[in-house]
Fold each of these.
Amino acid sequence: MVEKPLDIDQKLCKGCGICYTLCPKKAIKGDEKGKVVVDNPDLCSKCGICESHCPDYAIFVRREKK
Amino acid sequence: MRPELQKLFRMDKLPHIWCPGCGHGIITRAIAEAINESDLDLDKTVIVSGIGCSSRAPGYMHFDTLHTLHGRALAFATGVKLANPELNVFVLTGDGDATAIGGNHFIHAARRNIDLNIILFNNNIYGMTGGQYSPLTPTGKIASTSPYGNPENNFDIPALAIAAGASYVARGTAFHDKLLIDCIKEGIKNKGFSLIEAMSMCPTSYGRRNKMGNAADMLNDLKTTAVNINVAKKLPPEKLEGKFLIGKLHHKPYPEFTQEYDKLIAKLQKGAE
Amino acid sequence: MTSKKARLIQGNRACAEGAMAAGVRFFAGYPITPSTEIAEIMSEELPKLGGKFIQMEDEIASMACIIGASLTGKKVLTASSGPGISLKQEAIGYACMTEIPCVIVNVQRLGPSTGGPTSSAQGDIMQARWGTHGDHPIIALCPSSVYECFTLTVTAVNFAEKYRTPVYVLMDEIIGHMREKVILPNIDEIKIVNRKRPTCPSNEYKPYQIDETLIPAMADFGTGYKWHVTGLFHDETGFPSGKPKVIEEQFKRLMTKFDKYSDEILSWEETEAEDAEILLVAYGSTARSALDAVNILRSEGIKVGLFRPITIWPFPEKRLKTLAEKANKIIVPEMNYGQLILEVERICKDKASVGGLFKFNSLPITPEEIMFKIREVL
Ligand SMILES: Cc1ncc(C[n+]2csc(CCOP(=O)(O)OP(=O)(O)O)c2C)c(N)n1
Ligand code: SF4
Ligand code: SF4
Ligand code: SF4
Ligand SMILES: [Mg+2]
């Protein structure tokens, strides 16, 4: 089983749009309310930009241990 | 949230009160990252704030936290640090909190070079009270109390801090979060008054009135207006017009207040033996 | 042990020494007449004791600074007068709300505004009670001798610690600057009270717990309890709450927390008061003139007595009410336009006629003036 790269806490997301606007790979998008949803997980490069710019701590990007 | 950061937050208090897209959440996270990477004793770390949206941050952070009065955070923090210099003391404050009502405490804490780590959330507005102009609202911008454009001038916060005696001064933004984390970490290492101006954004009370787009647009503005000081050194002045500098702006360590006071105590007590 | 010796010292010095004897190890202040000597003495003595003195940039900062220091477990003091006490008010309210022990010495001078920096007055009685906004509990003690400046400052520190509250020592310029011969108690004769600290595990700690003591335990910052302090209305965990039920419960505890302890908190002194037909109610330096007046008039056979509240806030209401049953006239001399008389009238108006003798021209009230007033109503 492959682990999901993105762990999203929908309860915390306020739908500001920062994460999916900044995502360089367009791996995530907004739903009809603007809340984040994973669109295309295979595109995700695990860059972490979404995680570190989410004002609401709703995203956790699983990255390989350094 | 990344599991290793969760121990620094009061997870049960989330979601926080901030509006969607508020830059304060991003900066608060950067502070937690910096603390996490700095190997501080979390039991001996105190976070003090004043009043404002930014000053609500400590309520979400799992430390001894002190949410005080508008403008007075540095005065409270001075008491905490001087009474027990063993403690690592952070001060989270807003542009209004630190430079308007708290301006006097700001320059005097800097003058003492007391070992405090100040993270000043600058969103160019009084966010909490609904968008009145602050000493950092750019001239000409619209606020609820400057409906014809702000007629006043701004402070240059780093210049103010340096002139007053801060031994470490840096600036980061909610967009340049890695740089911000590095600046906070360096500030923590500096034994003295460390001021990190963190450019934030307030889509609700500032962005909307000034037609700056959504939160992502405002983050993008921070990205394009900031110039790293190392890059800026190589640029001609005309390229820097309308820009602001980020990175380490000043670092000049000199004797720190609480350490000097402890030396005085040691001397007096030795003399009495 | 050092043997006791008589010394000729100022009220301000006695106050500073009382604070240190009670365990105060942190002082923040800003110079202002007529309280400055207290800061000067603290700056000299505290570092010798391993304590800290800091001269802040203003009185707002001084008040905030001692609250911060108190949170680390230190016993703390600030001293000021008139304009400086006005500046401290917002932070005093913060200490009431967050229940952080601290002592504020107010060496009263003539006001309002810059008023008379070197003139004595008793014009801050109501400010001590209601100076900060919103309903709040407060304790204020009022010395009328140099010796009492020492002992009541000790008591103030003990009360602050025990009841988690700001406490005022309400001096006046005369008391602060007057020199008297005193023999101060030895350190081992002084009762010291320390705040209650939690013993439970940190995850069970409730800094504003409502229990039968009404005074919750307070953890020192830096000891792992990781608690939150805010001037917003908060629940027993210390975190903000806007729930009307929580606000009401915590507000009630705050407003009634001294009632349970009134036997210990309330103190006063009576001279010939039991059978007095004319009762003087006087405090601070004015009580000294009142005492002289009582002694002189008693020798003439006039039934005059003195009730001197030492705890001004909360006011020793019950006892005064009892005395008022017998006395048919009450006179309140005070160096202001009539402040404590409002409280005395409230308490006694159904029992006795209450009149005032007010002086506000920078001069003290003399025994002669009080006697004149008494003869007037005889
Ligand atoms: C003595 C006092 N004056 C005014 C206020 C009202 N007030 C609360 S927050 C605030 C402005 C906060 O602005 P800033 O420090 O920039 O923080 P932000 O909300 O923008 O993060 C004001 C004026 C107050 N709480 N106390
Ligand atoms: S980790 Fe990077 S690529 Fe993946 S979703 Fe987040 S921003 Fe997009
Ligand atoms: S940045 Fe965070 S809050 Fe904003 S849409 Fe994305 S997940 Fe939601
Ligand atoms: S008003 Fe502005 S600063 Fe305050 S929470 Fe909303 S966006 Fe943030
Ligand atoms: Mg602001």
Note: Residues B 52, 94-96, 123, 125-127, 134 surround magnesium ion (ligand 5) (CB under 6 Å).
Amino acid sequence: MTTRTFLVHGLLAGLLAGVAAFVVAYTVGEPQVDRAIALESAGATADHHHEDGATASDSHSHSHDDAAVSRATQSTLGLATGTLAIGVVLGGLTGLLSAVGLGRLGSLRPAASTALVALLGAVSFSVVPFLKYPATPPAVGSGETIDSRTALWFGFVAVSVLGVLAAVAVARWAARRWSGVPGTIAGATAYAVVVAVAALAFPKVDELGGFPASILWDFRISSLLTLLAMWAVIGAALTALVDRTWRRQEAVEAQRAFAAAL
Amino acid sequence: MAHAISSSTSSTVTPADLAIPLRELAPWLVLGTLFAMSVLVLISSVQGAITIPEGTAIHEWVHDGRHLLGFPCH
Ligand SMILES: [Zn+2]
């Protein structure tokens, strides 16, 4: 099994994951996006950013009604572009990291180490950042703070992903020194400490104003489901593909060993 | 290793034998990480932070994906 095998498998798994994420986002998420935009248009959250957009940062226009791209396109082709692009990128990267993890995560066999890498990717890239900076529907947030909020989000994701990489290094070191179980516990503890400290250190973002809680809840659940669907498919498809390649290789080697023994 | 002995009937390959050397992995990782980061930045494209010549086209196009995938937008 080569790096190339893992990358190709990862890209393929990511493509499937992008399709799955689109299906979930379109069916579960779009109704919530539409409700939020309807509220925004009705002016229920008026002072939020329509006025900011018009005065302060004209370039950052989010006026959904007169936007350059129509709502019908944004919710179909636009959404699909986003989920497919992110799916392929995350799938490819997960594939490459599974190639690194191959044979390096204790005595885990290829399928198991790949599944573990995908799980760590889901937790560190999506689930933990979501807990600190959950997704927000349209109409929430001021146009003036978008730059700082984006920087905070990327910063937190970076800390979380680097934290999990460091935690794996700690786990491997502890597993060599003692054994697998204390190693796993040490790694999990290291990651928990890193993200807990980061979560306390990073500032809170609260720009919800009077946004209706029920729409917010439904939107966030749908966003989380979209992310989970994407990672579930990346993990399942990549693991299945890697396992298939591994079994083939194993069969060939067993045959060769059998022939040599004759 | 007990593992190697017990599994000698089916295969003599242990997981550690499969590890791909890091010097072979490194260039893939560098390129993959840079590519992934540029796509993430493009999708999250904040006006002002990066300027796409044509303005807000990409930003508007992937707007819903950004919201539903948890990127900051508004
Ligand atoms: Zn938006």
Note: The longest helix of chain B spans residues 22-43.
